[in-house]
Design brief:
The chain folds into 3 domains: 77 residues, no CATH class; 63 residues, Immunoglobulin-like, CATH 2.60.40; 106 residues. The protein is α+β, with helices and mostly antiparallel strands. The chain is rod-shaped and about 140 Å long. The protein has a 4-stranded antiparallel beta sheet, with no helix packed on it. The longest helix is centred in the first third of the chain and has 44 residues. The chain is built from 6 helices and 9 strands.
């Protein structure tokens, strides 16, 4: 039992020492990797944003001498990176914003000097695309002004076809003119027959029949002409105006056309 009592603390000490060594080795590897990445990004690629991220990790994990070097890089690159601050006509939280294809979650971000592309989307609004050039150390503000989307007119609204009521009214007018022509022709034929057969002693009833045919033909001609005009107006308005209305008022011996529309 006494041997076991001595072995247990010894084993624990060995395990703790091994763990510390593993942690120290991991910290050393992180330090070296961050130090190398920071130097490479700032000197070769001029990616000061990523260089600052690696230099910050280096300053926290490396020995004092290397940490001092990384802190110096942090200060130098802080003057080189630009800052982009986005302002919006809509709440930023409601937007979908990408900077150079990377999603932004905050309106203020550090960027490298150069040309950058901002894409912004908002429900019910037109998408925005902004390109801007930033210089070293510049603090730029870019306002995003969103424009609501106007509902697009459907195919029927964009280009309406001829008005069906207009075609019907015009057809009725044409039919009325045709009927008026027939009555006028019959009246003239009857009048010619009476002149040859009994004039000037023809019966009053025969003469009255001819007069009624001519009067009916005149009324139908007026109605037909008004109907054709109304149909033409309705067909014309159906292409570029709001729906129109038309009514034909008939009184004895008179036809009146009333057209209403709004633009």
């Amino acid at each position: 039992m006494s041997l076991v009592r001595w072995l247990i603390p010894g084993i624990g000490l060995l395990v703790a020492t091994a763990s510390q060594r593993a942690h120290a080795q991991e910290v050393t590897q992180t330090c070296i990797r961050s130090f190398e990445q920071a130097g490479e990004q700032r000197k070769i690629f001029r990616d000061y944003v990523r260089a600052r991220t690696e230099a910050l990790r280096c300053s926290e994990t490396c020995p004092a001498q290397l940490a001092f070097e990384c802190k110096t890089w942090l200060a130098q690159d802080a003057e080189r990176v630009a800052q982009l601050e986005l302002e919006s006509s809509l709440p930023f939280a409601s937007l979908s914003v990408k900077l150079d294809g990377v999603v932004l979650t905050t309106p203020l971000t550090e960027v490298n000097p150069g040309v950058h592309r901002v894409e912004a989307l908002a429900d019910g609004h037109k998408p925005l695309l902004v390109e801007l050039m930033l210089a070293e150390g510049q603090h730029a503000k870019q306002r995003l002004v969103f424009v609501p989307v106007t509902p697009q007119a459907g195919p029927e609204e964009e280009r309406r076809g001829p008005s069906v009521p207009g075609i019907i009214v015009g057809s009725l007018g044409l039919s009325s003119l045709a009927a008026a022509g027939i009555l006028a022709g019959l009246g003239h034929l009857e009048a010619s027959r009476l002149r040859k057969a009994c004039a000037p002693n023809c019966l009053e009833s025969d003469v009255s029949l001819i007069e009624r045919e001519w009067i009916a033909g005149g009324v139908l001609a007026g109605v037909g002409l008004a109907g054709m005009i109304a149909g033409g107006v309705l067909v014309g308005l159906s292409f570029d105006a709001e729906p129109a209305s038309a009514s034909l008022l008939l009184t004895p011996g008179k036809a009146e056309l009333v057209i209403g529309t709004s633009f």
